[in-house]
Amino acid sequence: MYQYPSQIERDILEALAGESPIHTVEIAATIHRHPVHVERVCIQLCEQGILNSSRRGFYELADDSPQQFRWQ
User: Fold this and answer.
1) By its UniProt entry, which Gene3D superfamilies does this protein fall under (predicted)?
2) Most buried residue among 15, 24, 34, 57 by CB atoms closer than 10 A?
């Protein structure tokens, strides 16, 4: 069961709360992380139902993601 987001997860979720869907490379540039690392974390967040991938490399908050991950 997923409980507490790591720093990179929080950074990704905050980036997506402002505007989405966003491509992995843009997220990585925004949060100053390597795109491959961001992609791996985004895939994990998708598997947990927190993010959706609308098309390859683009991510957005899932409509039914837990409330603690939605800042809008």
Assistant:
1) Winged helix-like DNA-binding domain superfamily/Winged helix DNA-binding domain
2) 24
